[in-house]
Model the fold of this input.
Amino acid sequence: MSAREEILGRVRSALAGSPDPGPASRGYRRIMETADVAPLLCERLADYKAEVHRLPALEAPRAISEICAAHHVGRLGVPPELRIDWRPGSVDVIEDHGLSPRELDGLDGVLTGCTLAIAETGTIVLAAGPDEGRRALTLVPDLHVCVVRESQIVDGVPAAFAALGRLATRPLTFVSGPSATSDIELDRVEGVHGPRTLVVLVIR
Done:
């Protein structure tokens, strides 16, 4: 008898005569009864060491300019279809029409929108929409500034996939804070798999 068979035999013996547990419930709980899930998203993003700003939509252009100045951004990459009023006039805005990896690495940061955000997990979902651009644009530069509309925030993962619909079948990028990893000694290293700094504007 193999060790596996022995262990499974012991489990079966221990469970003999126990009632059938029945099917697992698929009715996942909702984590928020209120429609205002933005505060939880902001809290979770801050826990992940992201820089978070919550403000009215009309203040977004000014805030973006101030963020670029604070992070010494001179060359800012954007998706070609990013809305004009989000593009700061104080920096060199470069549209991504297939920039090479070297050109992407030469950017000081990137500015995008998102498809949606998940409050419970503090996650931003990118699906290569018009305001988001291709995946490489948000993975190579060291700074990612992302604008999230409060209407794009859902409470949990099941709600996110329900909202994504057919988009869930295409490649998606899930961003939960700045890129970071830890080795077996729990020494944290940031910027290994993506941007070292994530700045999120949650706009009303």
